[in-house]
Amino acid sequence: MSAKHKDLEFQLEDMGGQPRTFKDFGEACALAVAVAASDGRPVNLDVLAWSRAAARAYGGEAGAEQYDGDPEASVFDRIVIRAESQGRIA
Known about the structure:
four-stranded antiparallel sheet
């Protein structure tokens, strides 16, 4: 995803349980995978769209329509990231 908008953010908890907020989806995903791989727990990557335009940047016209349905939602979209070690492969 390359969507960027001033009102679009991506939030998750870091390895210490502290909330971290990113403007870049790739940076947020990198941390989410690192956290998930470190202890095996799933990580919630929350998409925060603070305006209709941000929702459109994230999800196109369908995203804008979804935003219209509940503009006060605290999380526009939640992506659950999991990383599972498969062990050594010979």
